[in-house]
Amino acid sequence: MLDENHHLIQCIMDYQSKGKTAECTQYQQILHRNLVYLATIADSNQNMQSLLPAVSLPVMWFLGACNRADQLVHQSMSQNRHDKK
């Protein structure tokens, strides 16, 4: 879409330089539609980021520690089963 917009801008500039402003209208409408579409996508992505909670460093550390503790418990349980055989 960015390449298309670049091409549209080039066409608009060419027509304007030749004094054919009436011919620019079609290209300007397409360019406007594309820009509105891109702005809508950018706004929706921004809104999604604001809805997601920020994970703080202590929470990330705690989750990592819990995961490691879980791994150690499973490792210990496997070792105990192996030792009993």
Automatic annotation (TrEMBL):
<comment type="similarity">
    <text>Belongs to the SS18 family.</text>
</comment>
<dbReference type="GO" id="GO:0003713">
    <property type="term" value="F:transcription coactivator activity"/>
</dbReference>
<keyword id="KW-0010">Activator</keyword>
<dbReference type="GO" id="GO:0050775">
    <property type="term" value="P:positive regulation of dendrite morphogenesis"/>
</dbReference>
<keyword id="KW-0804">Transcription</keyword>
<dbReference type="GO" id="GO:0006325">
    <property type="term" value="P:chromatin organization"/>
</dbReference>
<keyword id="KW-0805">Transcription regulation</keyword>
<protein>
    <recommendedName>
        <fullName>SS18 N-terminal domain-containing protein</fullName>
    </recommendedName>
</protein>
<dbReference type="GO" id="GO:0045944">
    <property type="term" value="P:positive regulation of transcription by RNA polymerase II"/>
</dbReference>
<keyword id="KW-0156">Chromatin regulator</keyword>
<dbReference type="InterPro" id="IPR007726">
    <property type="entry name" value="SS18_N"/>
</dbReference>
<feature type="domain" description="SS18 N-terminal">
    <location>
        <begin position="1"/>
        <end position="50"/>
    </location>
</feature>
<dbReference type="Pfam" id="PF05030">
    <property type="entry name" value="SSXT"/>
</dbReference>
<keyword id="KW-0106">Calcium</keyword>
<keyword id="KW-0677">Repeat</keyword>
<dbReference type="GO" id="GO:0005654">
    <property type="term" value="C:nucleoplasm"/>
</dbReference>
<keyword id="KW-0539">Nucleus</keyword>
